[in-house]
Every structure is written in structure tokens, then in C-alpha cells.
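Before relying on records like the one below, remember that each one covers exactly one chain. Contacts with other chains, cofactors or solvent are not represented anywhere in the record.
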Amino acid sequence: MKKNLLMWDQTLFKEIQVFDIDYIPEQFEYRDEQIQELAYAIRPALAGGHIFNTVCRGIPGTGKTTSVKKLFGEVIEITKKIVPIHINCQIDSSKYAIFSRIYTQLTKNSQPPTGTSFKMLFDMIAKYIKNEEITPIICLDDANYLVYEKELNKILYTLLRSHETYKHVRIGVIVIISDPDIDLELSLDARVASVFRPQTIHFAPYTAQEISGILSQRVMQGLYPNVLAADLLDRIIDRTMKCGDIRIGLNLIKRSVMNAEKTARMNVTNDDVTQALSISHDLRLTELVNILSTDETNVLFQLAAMTTNVDVITTKSVHTALGEKAIGYTRYVQIIEKLDHLRLVTLTYQNVGLGRTRIISLRYDPKQILSLQKPKATKK
């Protein structure tokens, strides 16, 4: 047996879960001010009043979701009269899907029966709230996806004006926005803005010192001593700082250590980190493509296929090239605008003759995008 090799039943991780993006650490550093603001916003509900509706803003990976979940955990421990509900709007991005999720989390029942209308669904939610004498606080996480789908106004209107139809039903809302380009004031209808009137909590990108502190603490908690050398951790910290997303750093550590485990070594090498870096570069793209609908991926993949052969591509030419997969032009325009919001494409205008033509181009390598196409199932 070679020395300095892992045995088959050994691991370099003490607690591998501390590197997962949904892990909630006991000691959550550098966001005390934001958590205190969130606590101030929901405090009135403890006395039976309305919470201050809140918007949390900041680029991805700046602690917004963790801050809200951390506070929600504390609320659950001290009272049963406030029921926090967290909804991932990347997964649930329609009005019905979101209220179905609210129903299941409130009542602990399964999904509403097939054929349940929205009115029936909301009647069941409101009746439960009234009978149990509770105040739900709904966190719409990554609500920018609701803006892309033009669903946010409908959802907020229903939540915030529920008391007008159902007496004694109070619902508070926390909205998390991860897209800095979204102007929420312009996105909201006047009828929604008049009742929403949120306070805004800003989550600035972590500084280099904060990133170093967070990742170092996770390494101490999650890995055995001497698994990841200081100079390699510095390399990961540097990459994390450049992208501004702490989740990238956590993923890089996890992948680097798993690379070392794969070859049964007791510590991480520079090559392990290099290999992890090459994979992490594509993580954001993979994450975005996975949340797209079939129609949206059809448009993206068609654009990628055309980009390998054509320098200048118009939005109209992509729609035409979709052929059998084409959808109505109004829906198509909504899709390309969503892809632009997600920073998958860039939309510009070019003067052609007497008119203006809309040009669309990819922000990623088309080969990277096409590699994410799922192979068609073969018929047996």
C-alpha cells in the first residue's frame, strides 16, 4: 500500500455540507446590519400588526437568501403566530405555482387537487390563515424571474390586497432581487406600488477581506487540517473576488477537494484547483440554462447554432430559423428580452435602409451553450 493515500473508507471532508450553497451557518458573518433591518421590518407582526414590506437587493452570492433564512429560523423558534415561507422563484415562477407552494408550506398538505381553480386555491389559503390566526411572511427569492415573466404585479397584488376580501388576513412580503438592472419602481403597477411601499435593504458585494474570512472559516469547519494549503486557498479567494459571488468560492473548494479524493491523495494540489476553476467557469451558464423552459432553450440553442456560421444575426432571422419549434412572435419577443435580462444575450439596434433592425448576439461561447443540449431519447 502506497503511503499518503486515502483508504477506501476515508474522506478529506469533516462536514461536506458546509460547502453547499443552501447551507445556513451558525455563525453568519458580515451581514449583521442587514439581518437587524429585516428583524425590524417583521417586528410589528409579533404584536399583531403589519410587517414592513421589504426588498433585498444585491448581486448573486452576497448573502441575501442566507440572511432571510437565518432570520426565518429565529422566528420559527420564538413564535408560531408568524409563519415564514421561502419561495425560490427560479423554480416557481408563475402565479399558480407560487400560491400552490404557499398552500403546501402553510397547511403541510400535498399539492392542491388537480383542477383546483386559483380562486378556490386562494380561498383555502385565506381560510387556513384566518382559522389558525397566523401571519404568513412570504419571501419571493430571485423575484427578478417574476419580472422577466411579467408575473410579479399579479402575485404582489393578490398577496397585499388579500385583506380587502378576507378580513383578518394579513400577509407580509419580502422580495429578493438579484438583477441590478431591474428598476423595481418602473416594474410595478400603480395599484401595487400604492400598497407595497417597501423599505430597501442593500447587500453590497463582499470585500476581499470578507471573502477570505468566510472561505477560511468554512475550510476550518468543513475540511481536515492540511487538506487545502494557504496558497491554494488564496488562489480560490482571488477568483471568487473577481466574480463577486461567494457561492463560486464554496464550489471551487468542494470540487478541488473532490478532485484530490478521486485520486486518493491526502491534500489538494495546484492541478486540482486548476481543474475546478475550468469547471466553475461554466457553472453560471449551466445554472441559467437549467431554469429555462423548452421554448426558451429552443431559442437559445438556435441562436448558438447560427452564431457558428453567421456574424450578424437579427432577432427576426432567429425566429424564422426556429421552423417547427417557432412560437408566436409576441411570446418570442418576451423570450429574447428575458435572455437579455439573464445576460445570456445582448440586444442592440442597427440602422438598415430607412428602418432599424434588432441585432442579437451571445454573451457566451456558442459551443459551450450547444454542449448543454440534452440528447433526444432514442426510440426502442
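Strands lie at 54-57, 82-88, 135-141, 172-177, 199-202, 345-352, 355-362.
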